[in-house]
Amino acid sequence: MAENAYCIAGKIVELLGSLIYEELSSAWGIQSDLKKLECIVLAIKAVLLDAEEKQESDHRLNHWLGQLKDVLNDVENVLDEFQNQILQKEVLKRCRSTRKKVGYFFSGSNPLVFHFEMARKIKGIRERVDDISDIKDFVFNNLLLIQFWMAHGILQSPKDENLELEDVGNLYIKELLSRSFFQDVEQENILYFTFKMHDLIHDLSLSIAKRECSVVTKKSALAIEVCHLSFLENGQEITTQLEKSSKIQTIIFQTDQSMSLLETCFSRFKYLRVLDLKNSSFEVLPSSIGSLKHLRYLDLSFNHIIKQLPDSICKLHSLRTLLLENCHNLERLPKGIGDIIRLKLFIVTTKHTCLSENAVGCLSSLRSLWIWRCVNLKCVFEGMEERRLTYLRTLVVGNCPSLTSLTLSIKHLTALETLIIRDCKELSLMEVAGEEDNQDLKLSLQNLMFFRLPKLEVLPQWLQGFANTLQLLWIGGCENLTALPDWLTRLKSL
């Protein structure tokens, strides 16, 4: 069944991509309708071959394929009507009879009538496809999805030495978008965008991964080979279910969890790669987390009562992603945080008054650093030695109302591509260290945003160091910046 459906889908895609269809669909005003239809068929075609191999052992998938084949047959019939219309138009061109031409105008073949009829049928097909699949609306974020892929080793190492794994991840996402696997893209800002997975791809993914992925409830039964868990409930029944599992690589908690359950997970699942504890409500993370030597992704965001991280977290030498966003009561970062030598993405909210060399400057592998909503923070990078953070590509400092000092040595941030500073009402930026002679600096900054900085009165001179690289300069809500400097015109790439 799937093979036949695949052949039908291939023929439909070939027809829709032909030049004559493009020209005539444009002439008849149904080009956008056929383009949407092509996207639907492409998405279906992409999953059919793999689905064929699994349909015999999965009755739900077999039924799903049957429904899809019916839809594809209807698509083919609609295109037959379209092709017949093309033939009628060709015959009419050769005909000299006025009577036939008048009859054609008042028939269902009239371009206006045909447009409405075709649009109605195509809409009906799209609605049937929606009915076949449920509406799954999980919103992905490209920034975090790439980190998740990296944690599981999904991304291939780039052949181009100028590319990072994050760049490879973005290429993957763009490819999936071009094939309509992902949809509903929304650009949130210059750093990231959101999107949803196509429903058909979602269904197929669930079917393929059903033995490896499981949602944990009090009534669920975990397969021995399960690797990825999402917890919806808590309690002793949950802990009991975990006794036979040993291959867990991902844990996502979607409900409050007890300390005993956390301890059980930390002691049992030594090969854990991803641990998502966002929206938790515990004051102290168990020190046994230090035993998770393979952990690469840790999300503690939106825990509003956690006060400190155990020093044992510094033993997580493989950790690449640490998310502490909106942890407003976090009093300090561990002194040995520099031992997390592979950390690439760090988002932090803390009660610290100063993030110095020992707090963030020692994280030499960082590619992306977000210092966010630190209401007590007064200084960042103070006392930091030169030639630190030389791999940093993205720096975001925002919603820090007490911040007065941002001590950056621009000449050493040679990899920095994006700098965003926003909502820091006491920051003037005059303390950022630039260079008098910056013509020979090899700098990389491409995107720069200053937003709601009321004490910013003049643009810093060090901006001239990015004359050959800066492509986007966005300034807003800086009411005391009354004039732009003459040298701004020398920024060649803006």
From TrEMBL:
Gene3D superfamilies linked: 1.20.5.4130, Ribonuclease Inhibitor
One Gene Ontology biological process: defense response
Residue stretches making up the Disease resistance N-terminal domain: 11-96
Keywords, ordered alphabetically: ATP-binding, Coiled coil, Nucleotide-binding, Plant defense, Repeat
Residue ranges annotated for the Disease resistance R13L4/SHOC-2-like LRR domain, each copy included: 260-475
Entry annotated with the keyword Thylakoid: no
One Pfam family recorded for the sequence: WHD_DRP
Record-annotated Disease resistance protein winged helix domain positions: 136-204
The keyword Metal-binding is annotated on this UniProt entry: no
GO molecular function, one term: ATP binding
Protein name (record): Rx N-terminal domain-containing protein
